[in-house]
Amino acid sequence: MLDIETLHHVSLPVSDLERARAFYGDTLGLIELDRPPFTFGGAWFRVGDRSLHLIVPQAGGNPTFRQRKAIDSHDGHFAIRVRSYSDAVAHLESRGFRATEERNSQPSAGNPKPMRLSPAGPAGFPQIYILDPDRNVIELNATQE
């Protein structure tokens, strides 16, 4: 049996590093970390006591992007715990995100930054689902509304 200590990091492919940096740094407020001098582009961000590694695929690579996909909590995603659900909703709204009732909402001209809200869902804690610029699904959840 493995003697697992903890989750170390999550890695995501990004198609535009500067756009991803703006989203994760400015929109979500994550702190960018120093990154080793790898031979490929990317950025690392602090997420609590863990990290998120953004990776720019090398030319000719075959990255997994969720192109033309909607918010889908049943698809691959990662979750960030926030202190306050209502404060997180207000912050995301200030950044242009708008609530949608559609379970699988896609960005559109009418709502380019959809977010699916679940203030009292079956998980037992409030949840928010959004997409990053490459349509990676991100869950934000809290212990309190």
The helix tally amounts to 2
* Whole-angstrom Rg: 16 Å
Largest sheet: 5 strands, mixed
CATH superfamily label of the largest domain: 2,3-Dihydroxybiphenyl 1,2-Dioxygenase, domain 1
Name of the CATH class of the largest domain: Alpha Beta
CATH architecture label name of the largest domain: Roll
Strand content: 25-35%
Which percent range fits the helix content? Answer: 10-25%
Q: Kindly, what is the distance between the CA atoms of the first and last residues, rounded to a whole number of angstroms? A: 38 Å
Q: Strand-and-helix sequence, N→C?
A: EHEEEEHEEEE
Low-confidence stretches: none
State the shape.
globular
Write a structural description.
With 145 residues, the protein is α/β, with parallel strands linked by helices. The protein folds into two domains: 9-55, 2,3-Dihydroxybiphenyl 1,2-Dioxygenase, domain 1; 77-142, 2,3-Dihydroxybiphenyl 1,2-Dioxygenase, domain 1. Helices cover 14% and strands 31% of the residues. It contains two helices and nine strands. The chain has helices at 17-27, 85-94, and strands at 9-13, 31-33, 42-47, 50-55, 77-82, 98-100, 114-118, 127-131, 137-142. Strands 5-9-8-7-6 form a five-stranded mixed beta sheet, covered by helices on one side. Strands 1-4-3-2 form a four-stranded mixed beta sheet, covered by helices on one side. β3 (42-47) and β4 form a beta hairpin. The radius of gyration is 16 Å and the shape is globular. The mean pLDDT is 92.
